[in-house]
UniProtKB/TrEMBL annotation:
Organism name: Wenxinia marina DSM 24838
Pfam families registered for this protein in UniProt: ACAS_N (PF16177), AMP-binding (PF00501), AMP-binding_C (PF13193)
The Acetyl-coenzyme A synthetase N-terminal domain, residue ranges: 3-57
Primary enzyme class: ligase
Molecular function terms from GO: propionate-CoA ligase activity
Protein name: Propionyl-CoA synthetase
Keywords, in A-Z order: Ligase
PROSITE patterns per UniProt: AMP_BINDING
Family: Belongs to the ATP-dependent AMP-binding enzyme family.
Ranges where the AMP-binding enzyme C-terminal domain occurs: 510-588
InterPro entries for this protein: ACAS_N (IPR032387), AMP-bd_C (IPR025110), AMP-bd_C_sf (IPR045851), AMP-binding_CS (IPR020845), AMP-dep_synth/lig_dom (IPR000873), ANL_N_sf (IPR042099)
Highest taxon in the source lineage: Bacteria
Any one of the GO CC terms: intracellular organelle lumen
Annotated EC: 6.2.1.17
Length: 630
């Protein structure tokens, strides 16, 4: 069957399609039905099934006689370490940590925050939670203490599992002091913290609360896999929205197993036993779905890479890892290849590397710019596939399903909607617009298995953020169009979310931090185009009347504040002081027009603008930084 037949098969019987896919998962009790729709527009999948995520990712492969196969290939150029962990090892490690967590009182439905770098223990921690039915919430290491505290207060974890430090090129990230600072700010306190001590920088343990990783597990009885209902949350993953408060995306266990398993063979085109590598971080959805869960569920070997595309030690690292670990399919963000291209434009570092096992390269997380895609195709001779999805969806909405059929690539388009997804482009009035017309990208409800049923502790926000604007549809927050062949083109966000080096960031959150400066009366943050990172945040500051402090000092303080409160991942370095901000007559800041000015793009002066001259003032203020050039 080709793509068209599979897609039409899903359209003809969506529930039957997913019930069939569910057969590839090992259930303790097979669900009697797929979709639960009695609370529409809130939907759930496989609610009366019983299943365990860790069993499906680990134990079932051991039971099938594949215990000796590598589950995780840990490759860490930043520490000079490599480790192979078999499925049997992983079973023993998750059982041991799961048992220790149970002994400490962590049970089904309890939350566990994981704040760890890219070490095998992070994946063991996630799977150990799944094993005992605890709900994990991984926080990316590039976030600072305050952001960690916000997530701790929202998830209210019983336990926190953390690494003592992370290693960034040329810098140690002090995870343990950051955790201590977060707990000093948080209202909620966990009962226990377990610290994985790394030799590069062991942390100081707080007596009574903190335990060393090994000591915590000493003598614990190994935990069995605890079956949970299909709609039991496997994890909460916080992502950026319009406001400073992150959205806690909930991932239900059953749908997540079924959908992820389906994607490995049908979408990524890999067979059990083959090596899959997603170069991302366990702190992001790509890391959850395609470093940890999906490859393991499908019986693939996953590569856990603690390094960067460049500088660890050089721009040939990707090629070295692909060759050494015989990677069949590789997935990363376009920005990673832009970094490689910048250092090695002619692909000279590829020479001598055998990439013959590599069948496909997948890109996602941000727009795949044609230059980078063409360059990558040219130097590797390997097909490059863009695909589009979000933290909320957990797996690809649109892409090129090479496991079913490789469709013709149109560079700049992530290709077509996957089974499960009825993607349409809607106009302001909520009706579908003709092919080639720009509009809001929406998905007809119900969403397929594995997608978010709600936001943690925030059902109303879920409804407002995704369901209210177009009743009966899920609003993706992306704008774009569909062409006459049904290919999608993703153009921009419709909200104030920006994408910096494949990392999704909230300008609203940055504005909250900037506004907290005692000399700042008002501010705005926009995303400006950047050759390497796709976008960079840029701040505009209006000072309090009478403030005569040097502008450079205030800018420097604001840059430091964003780094301290949000974290280095915000990559906030650009800011200017301006007299006033362009606004509509009703007081709304015209961020989209400012972004166009900054990028030197043609723009229409909004009819509603208070005073059009302000956009010229904005342009003049940022020209010295190299922006607003025609
Ligand atoms: N823990 C702590 N700090 C981190 C971190 C982590 N896990 N990841 C990044 N940071 C820090 C970086 O050290 C950097 O700090 P600095 O300001 O002191 O230099 C800052 O956050 C910004 O990081 P980043 O945006 O990643 O920029 P970079 O210059 O370090 O690297 C790339 C640029 C393109 C090489 C890098 O972004 C990359 O590899 N991206 C891959 C894309 C990716 O993984 N996307 C995830 C979704 S698929
Ligand atoms: P995240 O939730 O961090 O995965 O970010 C999701 C957002 O990243 C999407 O809503 C898009 O704005 C953007 N994005 C992800 N993949 C692509 C892609 N292939 N092309 C364009 N934008 C993308």
């Amino acid at each position: 069957m080709g793509y068209r037949e599979v897609y039409e098969g899903w359209q003809a019987d969506p529930e039957g399609f997913w019930m069939e896919a569910a057969r590839a998962i090992d259930w303790d009790r097979f669900p009697t039905r797929g979709l639960k729709d009695d609370r529409a527009p809130f939907y759930e999948w496989f609610t009366d099934g019983l299943v365990n995520g860790c069993y499906n990712a680990v134990d079932r492969h051991v039971a099938a006689g594949r215990g000796g196969q590598a589950a995780i290939l840990y490759d860490s150029p930043v520490t000079g370490t490599k480790q192979t962990i078999t499925f049997a090892d992983l079973q023993a490690r998750t059982a041991r940590l799961g048992g220790a967590l149970q002994r400490a009182g962590v049970g089904v439905g309890d939350r566990v925050v994981i704040y760890m770098p890219m070490v095998p223990e992070a994946v063991v921690a996630m799977l150990a939670c799944a094993r005992i039915g605890a709900i994990h919430s991984v926080v990316f290491g590039g976030f600072a203490a305050h952001e960690l505290a916000v997530r701790i207060d929202d998830a209210t974890p019983k336990a926190i599992l953390a690494g003592s430090c992370g290693i960034e090129p040329g810098r140690v990230v002090h995870y343990k002091p950051l955790l201590d600072a977060a707990l000093a700010q948080a209202r909620h306190q966990p009962e226990v913290c377990v610290i994985f001590q790394r030799p590069e920088e062991p942390g100081t343990l707080t007596p009574g609360r903190d335990h060393e990783w090994e000591a915590f597990q000493e003598g614990a009885a190994p935990a069995d896999c605890v079956p949970v209902p299909g709609d039991h949350p496997a994890y909460i993953l916080y992502t950026s929205g319009t406001t400073g408060q992150p959205k806690g995306v909930v991932r239900p266990t059953g749908g997540h197993l079924v959908a992820l398993n389906w994607t490995m063979r049908n979408f990524y085109g890999v067979e059990p036993g083959e090596v899959f590598w997603a170069a991302s971080d366990v702190g992001w959805v790509v890391g959850h779905s395609y470093i940890c869960y999906a490859p393991l569920i499908a019986g693939n070997t996953t590569v856990l890479f603690e390094g960067k595309p460049v500088g660890t030690p050089d721009a040939g690292t990707f090629w070295r890892v692909i060759e050494e670990h015989k990677v069949a399919a590789f997935f990363t963000a376009p920005t990673a290849f832009r970094a490689v291209k910048r250092e090695d434009p002619r692909g000279e570092m590829l020479a001598g590397h055998d990439l013959s096992r590599l069948r496909s390269i997948f890109l996602a997380g941000e727009r795949a710019d044609p230059d980078t895609v063409e360059w990558l195709q040219r130097i590797t001779g390997t097909p490059v596939y863009d695909h589009w999805w979000q933290t909320e969806t957990g797996w690809p909405i649109a892409g090129n399903p090479v496991g079913i059929e490789a469709l013709p690539v149109k560079i700049g388009s992530p290709t077509v909607a996957m089974p499960g997804w009825d993607v349409r482009i809607l106009g302001e009035d909520g009706t579908e617009v003709p092919p080639g017309t720009l509009g809001a990208i929406a998905v007809k409800l119900p969403l397929p298995p594995g997608t978010l049923p709600t936001l943690w502790n925030a059902e109303e926000r879920y409804r407002k953020s995704y369901l209210d604007r177009f009743p009966g549809w899920y609003e993706t927050g992306d704008a774009g169009m569909k062409d006459a062949d049904g290919y999608l083109w993703i153009m921009a966000r419709t909200d104030d979310v920006i994408n910096v080096a494949g990392h999704r960031l909230s300008t609203g959150l940055m504005e909250e931090v900037l506004a907290g400066h005692p000399d700042v009366a008002e501010c705005a943050v926009i995303g400006v185009a950047d050759e390497l990172k796709g976008q960079l945040p840029m701040g505009f500051l209006c000072l309090n009347k009478g403030c005569d402090r040097p502008h450079e000092d205030i800018v420097r303080e604001e840059v430091a504040r964003v780094r301290d409160e949000i974290g280095p991942v915000a990559a906030f370095r650009l800011a200017v002081v301006v007299d006033r901000l362009p606004k509509t007559r009703s007081g709304k800041i015209l961020r989209a027009a400012m972004a166009k000015v900054a990028d030197g793009q043609a723009y229409k002066v909004p009819a509603t603008i208070d005073d059009p001259a302000i956009l010229d003032e904005i342009a003049a203020a940022i020209r010295p930084l190299g922006y607003a050039r025609a």
